[in-house]
Amino acid sequence: MAPDRAAPAQPAAPLAGVRVLELSTQLAGPYCGKLFADAGADVVKVEPPGAGDPLRAWSASGAPLDGDGALFRYLNASKRSVAAEPDSPRVRGLAAAADVVITGGALAGGNHAGHGLDAAAVRRLHADNPRAVVVSISPFGLAGPWTGAGAAHGSQPPRDRAVNEFLLQALCGSTAARGEPDAAPLQAGGRIGEWAAGVYAAVVGLAALRGARRDGVGDLVDLSILECMTIMMGGLSVVGPTIMGGPGPGVSGSPGRVPEIPSIVPTKDGLVGFCTITAQQFQDFLVLIERPDLLGDRDLALLARRHARRDEFLAAVHSWSTRHTTDEIVELAAGLRIPVTPVGTPSTVTTIDHFTARGVFVPNPSGGFAQPRTPYRVDGFRGRPLVGAPALGEHTDTVAWEPGPAPVQAGAAARELPLDGLRVLDLTAFWAGPSATMLLGSLGADVIKVEGVTRPDGLRFAGGKPPTEPSWWEWGTMFLATNANKRAVSLELSTREGQDLAQRLIGACDVVIENFTPRVLPNLGLDRDAVRAANPATVLTRMPAFGLDGPWRDRTGFAQTMEQASGLAWLTGTRDGPPVIPRGACDPIAGLHAAFATLVALTARDRPGGGGVGAFVEATMVESVLNVAAELTVEHSAYGASLHRDGNRGPLAAPQGTYHCSRDPAGPDVWLALAVTDDAQWPRLCAVAGRPDLAADPGLATLAGRRATPAHDRVDAALAAWAAALPDRATGLAALAEAGVPAAPVTPAAALLANPQLVARGFFERLAHPVVGEHPMPGVAFRLASHPGPLLRRPAPVFGQHDDEVYRDLLGLTHPEIEGLRARGVLADRPAGV
């Protein structure tokens, strides 16, 4: 893109000098390490001697490999490789000199576990290296009833059983909400949870490093992939029934799957994706398809009723859409401000005009394929110049880190959180931006959320009370779930007084973060130069949907749009059906990448010689998602292979699916999920299902044999009959647990409150809200050894709750001055018009 071509030489990497030891294989841990490496850290990857990281031999499409697989080369560029066991003297020496140690992150499936450390070994690693930040990424965390050895029958999943992402999706509330109500619930394609866990771990790890450099003592970050996925892939919807008095924990209820209509529809030459989450967007969509006669149809205005008439409605949509090309539809819809995008496929995503104009895809340094670039920039820094992924053990005899300084002895006083003393001005709304600032607040930052009097955060009005109820704008369920740990001020930025106050607030803040469309901030007089003038030390982080330039610069973008454009939707759905959006995870994924980029900029500002000058950060939402969807791109550009959705099946386990327990007395929508992740589990599953004939079939003895479509169809039919005959799901799960077959209940969000692992780890924290009352709220996906207690210090704020204390204590305004601002509509105690 033009501004980058005109930029001066790239500055020094912000994380230059940071030493990261990566004791992790597969995907989540290496993606965490990649984020550190791209920001300039020296990342040394420790691999099992012999074969190394199993991902070296991996191709999701099964393409024959001549050397290391493309996904491995994407994840491990710019790292160094040491072939050694984790407890070897060489690795212990590297750990003693490391600033950050990343452990775990490998899930089961296809013999891809690699080496790993159990909970006791991770804790010993932390104890032996007290100056280092140890980041543990594990399926369930280091403590709780689902970790360690042994398990009671019926506990799901038993603590000594392998688990893969498919089962974690079933457990976290994601799968139960996806698919058609009269069909099996569906996984989200693309292993989104593992990618998300990697970037979540990177954010917390870099924040913990900031704390370690402040006081000289490292920390242990205990990240649970299940908790991360619960936050990002469906579990936050538990807030609705919790505060509204809906179904209680453990209740399955009736099918809750209602697919978005419209979403992805055929065109004259392909597919196009829409997002109509607001009433105005849906009305504009009816105008777009030349059906204004439907504007008065009240049934169609409601998604559930629209779905009941889906055949009729989709016939009208397709009659129009198939008469137009994708480009024509995108141009027409964008003109009406309807979120729209061509649907990315393996062969098209790298050719989309906006991505090519911005130079989003770059050559892998090893050659042979294209990959998405680093999804942010910090001033002129676009990620370090890439170096090809190392050969196995290439640096075993050459890596040498000088020992770091001795750790400072911790005193008796309570230790501060890693981001204590940092102040963030939060100008974000909806989910992506608020998820970033909530995490920063959970790590200790003082987050001041700014809401306009005439344009408050739109999430206040989603999923809560009707406008006939008192204070109905305080009941937005997603707002409550994504804005804990913040103070809130009202501020009408469309006024000159409001803009002047904003500049004064910037003067007191380390970070300003916003996710307006690109035109808004300059129109408010708060562009980069204005922020720099108000406070030269402030980091300004902008989160545009598609970037600050390029053909799509001014288009509206939501998570659904990102899922459609990136290819994640292409990987989700049944083999013979249309692509299905994964539903929402792209918002927090973008937020996490923005939070990481912000911490990278702060590290550069505060390091010796950094000058204390803040940076400008552009963290583009869609480019974050393209990094998470990278496997689709690299497989096609490296091997010409087109990954494709395949229902609940996948390359890492077979059989793998969801099976209806139709006799369960809990209700009509009770399903169990199972995944055979290695060949030894297969005959045990056959014994449980009472099908010795399947176990005796040599064609089914291997993963490859069971994955073949006719074979998997045959196995699925047998498992469906077995599950349908069970008296209840618990009986089936107990039998599978006894046999050591990985399985899990397909869990609706309302049942998450009863999950024994989440309960034991205190994932849900009780918060007392002044309007909504006291309720359990989803917390964060990690624990810190230095702060084992709750990390939600305050509930989501009511509108303008902290006006007096912030404007008085931070800016020195008097009570009459504050009241005058209220009288002139610059401040308010409620949104305008309610």
Automatic annotation (TrEMBL):
Keywords: Transferase
Keyword Cell cycle tagged: no
Molecular function as annotated in GO: CoA-transferase activity
Matches recorded under Gene3D superfamilies: Crotonobetainyl-coa:carnitine coa-transferase, domain 1 (3.40.50.10540), formyl-coa transferase, domain 3 (3.30.1540.10)
PANTHER family hit by this protein: BLL6097 PROTEIN, SUCCINATE--HYDROXYMETHYLGLUTARATE COA-TRANSFERASE
Record-given protein name: L-carnitine dehydratase/bile acid-inducible protein F
Organism, as annotated: Pseudofrankia inefficax (strain DSM 45817 / CECT 9037 / DDB 130130 / EuI1c) (Frankia inefficax)
